[in-house]
Amino acid sequence: MAASKAKPATEEPKKRSATKAPAKAPAKSAAKAATKSPAKRAVTKAAPAKKAAKTTARPAAKSAAAKSTDDGATKPKTRSTRGPAKKAAATKGAKNADLDLAAEDLDTDAELDGEPGEDDIDDADLSLDDLGADAVVDADGEAPATAAAATEGAAEDEDEITEPSEKDKASGDFVWDEEESEALRQARKDAELTASADSVRAYLKQIGKVALLNAEEEVELAKRIEAGLFATQKMAEHTEKGEKLAVAYRRDMAWICRDGDRAKNHLLEANLRLVVSLAKRYTGRGMAFLDLIQEGNLGLIRAVEKFDYTKGYKFSTYATWWIRQAITRAMADQARTIRIPVHMVEVINKLGRIQRELLQDLGREPTPEELAREMDITPEKVLEIQQYAREPISLDQTIGDEGDSQLGDFIEDSEAVVAVDAVSFTLLQDQLQSVLETLSEREAGVVRLRFGLTDGQPRTLDEIGQVYGVTRERIRQIESKTMSKLRHPSRSQVLRDYLD
Q1: From CA 345, how far away is CA 340, in angstroms rounded?
Q2: pLDDT of residue 418
Q3: Cα separation of 59 and 28, whole Å?
Q4: Residues of the chain where predicted confidence (pLDDT) is lower than 70
Q5: Region (Sigma-70 factor domain-4): which ranges (predicted)?
Q6: Are 96 and 75 in contact (CB under 8 A)?
Q7: d(CA 272, CA 299)
């Protein structure tokens, strides 16, 4: 009988080593080999445990076929192995009792779900499949050493899977660190996806995950929002007055405030697509599409706070006007390089609308008089408004199909010095210097200071008088006499050519 049981040792070594071989071996040598040597090796490593199981199974089969069956040989082993199990069960029972007492102190059911005692497993209830193929179990199904070996073997197998190979390290491929948390890994994956995706498309995909609301759900959320706003106002009033509130009352009011905030966020997220549909109408007017959406979201927040569900209208009907107002106001303040007041922007928009209508009716561009008659203003005011409506153009704007030229390349610099004028100015200075050399040193100095011929800064009579230590009247007389000399044809003839 024992020999027939040992026959499948070569076909299914895991089942034989786990159930039959240690229980039926009568020889003392086989019992020692099954209890001591495999157990010690299984604790240290899972792979030697398999080899020990195979080596002990073969001598057990041979000795069982040669000798008679002795049932008393296994009884001491059963008693010796049950001793630690009973102690462990008693210790475990005490721990479970302490855990039951500690569980009464918990406030929520969520905290009870994670009790430490739940992870304790009774060794007597473990089956062969639970322990794994590498565990060696005795007749009563108790093998704490082999279970630990199986756990350690599974951990080693997992380490072997996660550890990168030498080929991966040599290739330089990115390898996840084993100590990184799942949250960090997920964050990196999300960053890689969002970095390559278009920002607008990613935003539209995100807001599309929230389901739309019907009229009843909008009313329910509006009621919760109203209750939250009222509770917030009451709490602020009590705080200003310095009143002491009961703990239960303060807790209830705080819960209502938080519930109102949750309802507000839900109503906002469910209507973000409405903002996108309205923002599409204002694209191409000086603001980016995402900026228009952001400004529209601010208007949506305002609409959520002021929505009155008792009127009987849907929320989208009410929120549309707040969203449009927020977008148009943002365009008036931010779309132009030179900011124009909001009321003037409205006048410019009105003028543009009337101009398009007259163009369609008349088939030509309307005149300022026709526009003034339609707007009930003067033609001069129409020209002024059109002047304000002009958009500035960047000098760096490319010109032509090739894009190799810029607008600034074709604009004349009025302050640049022309080469011909520079040469004429140099010749004039030389002629003046030659004419002044015909005068006395004092007369030439007065003329140079009076007209700023030296540094380009003209001086007054008082300043020149201080330089020469005379009165301003004396300087005036010297100037008058010198100018008379310069008007003489012998001196002025060479300078008349530069007057043109």
Answers
A1: 6
A2: 79
A3: 11
A4: 1-197, 500
A5: 435-488
A6: no
A7: 11
Any idea what the Cα angle at residue 45 is, between residues 43 and 46, rounded to 5°? 100
Phi, psi at residue 123, to the nearest 5°?
-65, -30
Question: Tell me, what's the pLDDT at 155?
Answer: 44
Q: How far apart are CA 107 and CA 98, in angstroms?
A: 17
Give the type of residue at 231.
Answer: A
- pLDDT tens-digit map of 89-142: 444 444 444 444 444 444 444 343 443 334 443 443 433 344 344 434 444 444
Q: Could you write out the three-class secondary structure of 227-283?
A: HHHHHHHHHHHHHHHCCCCCHHHHHHHHHHHHHHHHHHHHHHHHCHHHHHHHHHHHC
Question: CA 133 to CA 147: how far, in whole Å?
Answer: 10
Give residues with Cβ within 8 angstroms of 150, minimum separation 6: 42, 46, 131, 132, 134, 135
- Cα separation, 45 vs 145, whole angstroms: 11
Q: Compute the radius of gyration of the chain from its Cα atoms.
A: 49
Residue 181: CB atoms within 10 A of its CB come to 9
Q: Is 405 helix (H, G, I), strand (E, B) or coil?
A: strand
Specify the DSSP class assigned to residue 174. -
Q: Which two tokens stand for residue 415?
A: 């302050």
Among candidate residues 15, 35, 122, the one with its CA nearest the CA of residue 78:
35
Is the Cβ–Cβ distance between 319 and 303 less than 8 Å? yes
In three state form, how does the secondary structure of 409-476 look?
Answer: HHCCCCCCCCHHHHHHHHHHHHHHHHHHCCCCHHHHHHHHHHHCCCCCCCCCHHHHHHHHCCCHHHHH
Instruction: Determine how many CB atoms are found less than 10 A away from the CB of residue 186.
Output: 10
Max CA distance (Å), the chain:
156
DSSP of 154-171: HHHHHHHHHSPPHHHHHH
Query: Which residues lie closer than 8 Å to 111 by C-beta, 6 or more apart?
Result: none
Length of the chain equals: 500
The continuous run of DSSP H or E covering 398 comes out as strand 398-399
> 471: which 2 tokens?
């009165």
Token pair, residue 169, equals 């390290």
What is the predicted pLDDT for the residue at 30? Answer: 40
What does the block give as tokens for 117? 């005692």
Question: 302-335: per-residue pLDDT in tens?
Answer: 999 899 989 888 999 999 999 999 999 998 888 8
Alpha helix positions (H), 67-181: 75-103, 109-112, 128-131, 144-162, 166-171
Reduced to 3 states (helix: H, G, I; strand: E, B; else coil), residue 49 is helix
Cβ 395 vs Cβ 408: under 8 Å: yes
Element (H, E) at 28: helix 28-35
Q: Which secondary structure element, helix H or strand E, spans residue 406, and what is its range?
A: strand 405-406
pLDDT in the model for residue 144:
43
